[in-house]
Design goal:
Layout lengths: L10 H6 L4 E2 L2 E2 L1 H28 L1 H78 L10 H24 L1
Antiparallel strand pairs: 1-2
Length: about 170
């Protein structure tokens, strides 16, 4: 190839290229120059194809899809971690709920026992008041045992206040 300037080669030029012959075949220098030119042209064409591809909507869409896929994968990974943390917190909350239920049952049982004890004490007090009522105490005035207990409680408080005032002087 005598004119080895940088120019675009067409497939037809490559096909029709003739080399001068020497005694034992083609001139190796010409073949080397031509192959170099073809390789350079081919490289330029590949670059041009890539540049043109980058301008096509399909290529742009493909790039956007790749970017979106990466972002989605990243988001999915983040959400998986968040889900694991939430599951752990859920387990902790469920454990705490169980503890609270146990405490609630315990407290309910204590309250039941306290109510039973208070009921027993009230019955004893009622029996005491009824017993005193038969002897001619508050029952003679037509008071109920509960009213009698309230009155006794008030009197007891009054005495406490009196005692405190006497002891402070």
């Amino acid at each position: 190839m005598k004119n080895a300037k940088k120019r675009r080669l067409t497939p037809q030029e490559i096909k029709n290229q003739e080399f001068s012959k020497k005694l034992f075949g083609y001139d190796p220098d010409e073949v080397e120059i031509f192959l170099s030119t073809v390789a350079g042209a081919y490289e330029e064409l590949l670059k041009e194809v890539e540049r043109l591809k980058a301008k096509t909507p399909e290529y742009k869409a493909e790039q956007v899809m790749e970017k979106a896929k990466k972002e989605i994968e990243k988001l999915v990974e983040t959400k998986k971690k968040e889900l694991q943390e939430l599951e752990k917190k859920k387990e902790e909350v469920e454990l705490e709920i169980e503890k609270l239920r146990f405490t609630q049952k315990k407290m309910t049982n204590r309250l039941k026992l306290a109510l039973l004890e208070m009921t027993r004490i009230l019955k004893e007090l009622e029996e005491d008041v009824k017993g005193k009522g038969e002897k001619g105490s508050p029952g003679d005035r037509g008071e109920s045992p509960a009213q009698s207990l309230k009155e006794q409680d008030r009197e007891g408080r009054g005495r406490e206040v009196e005692d405190k005032s006497n002891s402070s002087t």
